[in-house]
Design brief:
53% strand
Length: 116
């Protein structure tokens, strides 16, 4: 369920936005344009899997700019999550696109929580 990705709870990695197919994307509307320079992501962490993904931002959901390029990531997710910093951008939309899950076929993307 998409709301799990932004419900403020990153304590339970079983309660997450989950897809079965890749690539898979989730776009979050921040409701207003605001300055951002950090995104914190908690992906599923219980079994040592890692994800390869990118996070992009937009003011209009039409034109996107790369914020986080983790398309070659091999670091497993952890309970602490991961913070990604970038130069300050004014954004309204955040789009996360998963392209690989080390757990194999049928295991898509899993966002426990994402914060901007």
């Amino acid at each position: 369920m998409p709301t799990y990705a932004v419900d403020g709870d990153h304590s339970n990695c079983e309660q997450a936005w989950i897809t079965q197919e890749l690539p898979a994307e989730l776009t979050i509307d921040l409701s207003t344009i605001r300055p951002l320079n950090t995104i914190r992501l908690w992906a599923y962490w219980n079994d040592g899997r890692y994800y390869q993904f990118r996070i992009e931002g937009s003011v209009d959901a039409q034109s996107w700019v790369m914020l986080v390029d983790a398309q070659t990531n091999r670091t497993p997710g952890t309970r602490a999550g991961q913070a990604y910093t970038f130069p300050v951008r004014r954004l309204r939309y955040i789009r996360t696109t998963f392209i690989h899950n080390s757990a194999g076929a049928g295991n898509g993307g899993h966002i426990v929580e994402i914060e901007g």
